[in-house]
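This section describes the prediction task in plain terms. A model, or a person checking by hand, is given the sequence of a single protein chain and must write out its three-dimensional structure as a string of tokens. No templates, partner chains or ligands are provided. The sample shown here is typical of the held-out split.
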Amino acid sequence: MSRERTYRTFTHRQAVLRICCRKFEAVTQEIVRQRRILEDYIARHPDFRNSFEPIEPLTDAPEVARRMAGAARLVGVGPMAAVAGAMAQIAGEAALAAAAPEVIVDNGGDIYLQVSRPVIIGLHTGTTKLADRIAFSLEPDDTPLSICSSSGKMGHSKSLGKCDLATVVAKDTALADAAATRAANLVTTAGDVDRALQQIAAVEGVDGVLIVKDERVGLAGKLPRLIRIQ
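The expected answer:
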């Protein structure tokens, strides 16, 4: 029996997800369901989508909105900064509830994973010196875990900084997503890295943070084992 993992792509609205899970349909159906729930909620509460600062959810807000709002409040960003992470974790949890032996959901660089054997998660820095050469090596006991990244130079998400890569590790994917966004916002020059590391590592629930700006690579907190790949 092959030990290779198979990743499949799923596109819904603007989101492009890479999913590794035997219960693929459980993941994709939950993404569609949660997206519909969130869109219905935003139609009633448009400030939730538009705010760049934390905003309290309505008293009858759905679970996905509550997770997003809670993460945003801890970090100091708008709740939509946590949407990809929140969706990834909720969909991954649906697969585990359907008896999937493991699940990896990569929602545009925001990853939730629970694995039954070792896995390597590559980090794309966007810089010439380090491009596609570093990765996290994780064991099953390290998971469930969330690894979320943001950048001021790559991707379609809005960033207020010029960070090459900000990656946050946490148990909660909405929090890791929001914190990665905040970290990337804080970095315009290499001189900003230390301050950003200190601020993000101090957020309750954040395990560790990695920031790359030009030739500067900064680490703080507890991160998975970092390896160099050829």
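For orientation: The CA atoms of residues 62 and 183 lie 27 Å apart.
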